[in-house]
Amino acid sequence: MTLVESIPRWMCKETFEKFTAISLMSGHDFSALSGVKAPLLEILLLKGDVSLTTIASDFFQGMKNLKVLSLSNVNFNMGLPESMGELERLKTLHLHHCKLKDVKLIGKLVNLLVLSLRGSTLEELAVEIGELCMLRLLDMGDCKGVKRIPANILSRLSNLEGLYMLNGFENWASTNIEVSNIEQLLTVNNGQLIEQLGKRKSKHRVKSVAKKTECLVLRDCSRLTKNVVPDLDEDGFKDLKYLKVENCKVKSVIHSDEHNEPMAFANLEILELIYMDFLEMIGEGKASVGVFSNLRRLKLSYLPSLKCGLSLTSILLNFNEVSVESCPALKFVAYKDAKYETQIDLFPCLKSLHLNSVSHLSSVLEQSETEVFALFNLEIMKMRSLGSPSMFAALVQLEELEISRCDHLQEVINKETEGDEILKKAINFPKLKCLSLKYCWKMERFYRGSYNLKFPNLKSLCLSNNGDFTNFDGSENSTTLFSDKIEFRCLEGLDVQEVSNEVLRLWNWSSSPV
């Protein structure tokens, strides 16, 4: 049985004996639960008012079977209730946004696997926390009041796999903590911690931490001014799967030269680079074969100085999502390293491409004029830049194309060149179902050239607020929006708003292939 939101007035303490779970997250008074007999209760979720809510000493006395306890917005300035220390079967304890003063009592919960103090006020982590030898996850994120973590606490947490401290304790420089204390961690979610360890004399021990780290967030690391590799790990974080670097002063993520070519990020799946004014390139120097070879997702946001994207030396078989936003100096999302001469497509599994506010972008991939860059499995593409006929013709899996708010964009597909002769006078979008062009004030046309455009499965077409849009295929001296070179077979919805005053009709009905 489960009780949610509030306690009815008619309920007495004996009523709770058959309950296995109780959730009271409305912020209302839950003092009626104090001392109730609930021998079957396994899950208890309570949310109070931090300025008013306190818990009596005997509150948990009749709940000895609790396995999950979550308390939010509770005032514990007078200490944790003594009965909490008797919850021998407790596996998960959340004390979120609580006022905490003394947490020694938590050390009695020796079977605890997860301890989260996220957002709570706390000055010092009690030495007794080191008694939690079964603990696997310690979360102290947003605990900004923590001034001291006693030495040897982390080293005693022998089964700890995850340590989350973002926006939390930052005073590692004044803390007597050995690197060996966290060598067992699989997740380190604290840029300040890794940065401080990088300044210690025992660099070989820093490497031991990096080798076991799968998830790493570097945020506001003021002393990290050059790069991530090799500055933090000369071996290149070989086991890392997720890396987020935010608001740091690095100029590159990887630096290599003739003396040092690290095989970096071989197993990295997700890379996010956000809010960095000084980042100029992801890889500086020649990239080693296999760098980023397992990458699935790339996110680049608000990087005003970034000019070069990924330097690739191998096919990215798992790469399926790219998001680039507010990178005004970026010219290429990716480019081929000189070592890589194969003509096979580098992104065979790409499904989503989102480009926003990238005014200097000339191509997704740097390529020669005769080279065809194909995204064979691309399904959703949201972009704000131009592409060649060959590139668009290769998007045979494309289902949705949205182009919006491109202030300088005049056309979506460039006029064909010699390298586009393989197209046989037609550009086909076999699976495209939705096409939307919005708020591109200087856009004049979708395509300017001699090829036919085929949309056999297009169902929805939106042309909205494109003030200079004259006609779809760039036909000269035409007052018709769609010429007979445009083929729609399944069109169900058409939305046309705010196009050029020169447009007098949608198409020539006598010859339209609709």
Tell me what the structure shows.
The chain is mostly beta strands and 514 residues long. Among the domains are: 223-367; 373-514. Helices cover 5% and strands 25% of the residues. The protein contains four helices and 32 strands. The protein has helices spanning 153-156, 191-198, 203-211, 389-393, and strands spanning 2-4, 21-24, 43-47, 68-72, 75-76, 92-96, 99-100, 114-116, 137-139, 162-164, 187-189, 215-219, 242-246, 252-255, 270-274, 281-284, 297-301, 308-312, 321-325, 332-336, 352-356, 363-366, 380-382, 400-404, 426-428, 434-438, 452-455, 460-464, 480-482, 486-488, 493-497, 505-507. The strands form six sheets. The protein has a 20-stranded parallel β-sheet. Strands 18-20-22 form a three-stranded parallel β-sheet, with no helix packed on it. It has a three-stranded parallel β-sheet with strand order 25-27-30. Strand 23 (380-382), helix 4 (389-393) and strand 24 (400-404) form a beta-alpha-beta unit. The longest helix is centred in the middle third of the chain and has 9 residues, at 203-211. It is elongated, with a radius of gyration of 30 Å. The protein starts with a strand and ends in a 7-residue tail after the last strand. Residues 200-206, 368-376 and 510-514 have low confidence and may be disordered.
